Amino acid sequence: MSSNLEPAKVQTRMQRFWDSDVWWSFKSHKSAVGAAIVLALVIITAFLAPVLSPQNPYDLAALELWNAELPPIWIEGGQMPFLLGTDVQGRDILSGILYGTRISIIIGIASVAVSLFVGIGLGLIAGYYGGWIDNVLMRIGDVLLSIPTVLVAILVSSVVQQFLPPAFREAGLAAVLVFAIAMYSWVQYARVVRAQTMVERRKEYVMASRLVGTPARRMMFNHILPNTLTPIFVAATLNFGLAILIEATLSFLGVGMPPNQPSLGTLIRVGNQYLFSGSWWIVLFPSIQLCILVVAVNMLGDWLRDALNPKLR
């Protein structure tokens, strides 16, 4: 009996989604649909990089120096299969972009997930209990927000790398970047959740749950948290694009991913050194990919903010 009900429940939920205002808003918003299609193509091609790429840019044995600085295929001197040309090491630009995009997306998703976990937890605690706990957590957040984002990330990344053993510094750079970005981003989620929690805890259903002896942990996560998810979804979407930009900035400044495991920021940093020598394609195409990725994410975030805002319905 229960096994027959499960597909019906899933179908009912899907039908509710197709009939919801959010889906109607998405279908009628041409820029959101276009951004979603572009973002989906970028993510799919990035994670299918081993299948689509003509070369593994991480395999040094596959790099041939006589193929260095080949121009794109439509320019005289270009060769197949290097559609977008090669860099000074003979690395295929298209392969580097696909693999680098995958690294940037993974770091962006991981940093948003970590900052969400920390920010939601601390925001619930600060808003529910208040008092000195709220003051301490929010003052820590104020200190972090008073420092520019990139400086916080550089400081955290540099300090953490110094504590890692030399053998693990290069291998653990991705985790260090995630930690460095999350150290700043959690404050925004904590403030949003704290504000919503302070409103929700004064409502009748919360007071009634307290009277019947509901534990504080269950109260926060089962009753209050679901009512704070709408602004969290919007903030997470917008911060995903910001996290990718921060990672690209750190890699461009030399404190991010190494050249043998390049992200989009690393590719731009390497290509920038040869911009005025005539090899413009080395920096141009990774920059275009980064712009497309971030703009698509931000356009979706802007639509989601408008779609979930009850004042605009």
UniProtKB/TrEMBL annotation:
Protein keywords: Cell membrane, Membrane, Transmembrane, Transmembrane helix, Transport
Main location: membrane
GO cellular component, one term: plasma membrane
Membrane topology listed for this record: Multi-pass membrane protein
GO terms classed as biological process: transmembrane transport
Subcellular location: Cell membrane
Transmembrane segments annotated in the record for this chain: 32-52, 103-128, 140-160, 172-193, 228-253, 280-304
Pfam families: BPD_transp_1, OppC_N
Limits of the ABC transmembrane type-1 domain: 101-301
Entry-linked InterPro entries: BP-dependent_transpt_permease (IPR050366), MetI-like (IPR000515), MetI-like_sf (IPR035906), OppC_N (IPR025966)
UniProt similarity note: Belongs to the binding-protein-dependent transport system permease family.
Name the UniProt record assigns to this protein: Peptide/nickel transport system permease protein
Source organism of this protein record: Sulfitobacter undariae
Taxonomy of the source species: Bacteria, Pseudomonadati, Pseudomonadota, Alphaproteobacteria, Rhodobacterales
